[in-house]
Fold this protein.
Amino acid sequence: MATQNPILAEAGETIYEVSQEEHQRQILEGREDARRQELGVQRLIERTKKERDEAEQERAKAEMARAKAEKDLDETLAKLDAAYSLLREKGINPDEAMPTQKSDQ
């Protein structure tokens, strides 16, 4: 019928072209959506890596502070032990030499 009527043939071709254009538009939109999703995932990965690195730096700082505090405590205890030993060498009982605290009543 379309081959006998040029108007119908032209309308058929137009419908075919429009449907092809719609199909191509959908393909392009799908590709663009996929590209946007990929960029979103890349940004999420970068943000997660940055947060992980920052957390690792904070953990390292905390570990260094803990190690320093432990070293300082060890040094203080060593000084106290030396002082107690010196007092004992002098014949002084360190527990008796320490002032006692009076409680307020």
Notes: The mean pLDDT is 87. The chain has two helices and no strands. Residues 6-93 form one domain. The two ends are 116 Å apart (CA to CA).
